[in-house]
Design brief:
Length: 246
């Protein structure tokens, strides 16, 4: 074999190896995303506590070792899902250049949608926090503190814009932000217990109406107009006692 042919052959083999490595990385990366996507679906359907790594592997048609390669323990899967939600909420909760109450409520609605997409986390939060302290950090760590501050700043901007009452000081704004966080996290569990037969859309509308009603006590006339504009975008106000009707 000539020196030229040897070089060509060597480069060809090098390209083959490189291509195999690249394709392996693509497949492995694809598997990681498949694991997370299917785990989220199963956790939402059956509950995090009731789906183990073996059940997940069987559902995906892979060996348990393929999963543990990416996620050594089930806690690592849950943590990765929690981080996905955190990134989603970080992208949702933003302070716009020109705050409006209508925009704030639409932001809240998107947070509700995010939480419904990851509802398994909110149905199992207390137990998960005890079992997985790293997951608790996702919700009460610095990023969560920063996000809560964004909401406070947003509310302050609404007050300065004449949409919320001017007499609302920092303590009141912080409590209003805490109310938003409470409902955004709690509506999943409360809706599941109180209205088990209702659709997710019905439940979401019900709790968003509660948010609107609560904010109405803090708004100016101009702010109330924006609240009502948002209310008109929701489905008709659900009857909270409908499940008890004969």
């Amino acid at each position: 074999m000539s020196r030229f042919s040897a070089k060509v052959s060597s480069r060809f083999l090098h390209c083959q190896v490189f291509w195999k490595v690249c394709m392996s990385e693509v497949r492995e990366g694809g598997l990681r995303e498949r694991i997370l996507a299917r785990a989220l679906e199963l956790y939402n359907e059956e509950g995090i506590e009731y789906v183990g790594v073996r059940e997940l592997a069987r559902d995906l048609g892979v060996q348990a070792g393929n999963i543990s390669y990416h996620f050594p323990t089930k806690d690592d899967i849950v943590l990765a899902i929690g981080l996905q939600l955190r990134e989603l909420n970080d992208a949702t909760v933003r302070l716009p250049p020109h705050p409006s109450l209508l925009g704030f409520m639409e932001m809240m609605r998107q947070v509700f949608r995010n939480h419904h997409e990851f509802r398994c986390l909110f149905l199992s939060l207390p137990k998960l926090f005890i079992q997985n302290p790293a997951l608790a950090d996702v919700y009460v760590g610095d990023r969560e503190v920063d996000r809560r501050q964004v909401i406070v700043d947003y509310l302050r901007g609404l007050s300065q814009a004449g949409l919320l009452r001017a007499d609302l000081g920092p303590p009141q704004l912080r409590r209003l932000a805490s109310f938003c966080a409470l409902v955004a996290r709690g509506w999943i569990g409360d809706g599941w217990v109180s209205y088990p037969d209702a659709s997710p859309e019905w439940r979401m509308a019900h709790y968003l109406h509660i948010v609107v009603d609560h904010f109405a006590g803090y708004t100016t006339p101009a702010g109330l107009e924006e609240l009502e504009a948002f209310r008109s975008r929701l489905s008709p106000a659900p009857d909270p006692l409908r499940r008890f009707h004969g």
